[in-house]
Amino acid sequence: MSATHAAPSSARPAPEAPEAPEAPEAPEARDPGDDAEPGQPSNLMDHAYDGIQEYDNPLPGWWKAIFIGCIVFAAMYGFYFHIANWGSTPGQRYAADLADFNDKKVMRDRAEAAHVNEAALARNASDSKLVEHGAAVFAVKCVGCHADQGRGMIGPNLTDTYQLHGTTRMDIFHTVHDGVSGTAMIAWGDQLSAADVLDVASYVTTLRGQNLAGGKPPQGEPVGPFQP
Fold this sequence. Notes:
Structural class: mainly alpha
CATH superfamily of the domain at 115-222: Cytochrome c-like domain
Order of helices and strands: EEHHHHHEHHE
Strand content: 5-15%
């Protein structure tokens, strides 16, 4: 009699896979309005963007008061200055002041010029201090056109016995004071004091007849040297 014996199996059952942990539940969205005291309205706005609700945080009262005040002031300013024309703008006041200054300057120049004549220019030309001052003004303001010692460059030669504008000392004074329209000779009376204009004109009268070497060729009419 034979007996059949079953061999023991070496295979073991596979272990069971662990269960995945459950994801924690997302916390419920908290309404900031929940913090509002009972009976008080919530500061949370009704609309939402991308799930985000806007919190109503109004500007302080003093800020809004200043903003509204600026608008009211601007409206009043525009009406007062630009519509009703009751006031003057800074530009208008400046234009009025400038016109007044120019009017007074014309009157002052006329009064000062009334005291200038041939005799006064001749007298000043013999005063070494006034001539020295006139030479200093000439060196700063006039050499750019008349060259060193009045030899002439852009402007005429002042050391010969010719005169381009007029013939007298007063003609020289008026040329310096009022300038010559259409030329590079500006009205120095607009930039220099009355004393500076008088002294530089007196100095120029002393240059006539020196005929310095290297001077510009004569321009104008022959006039001869000034008589003392």
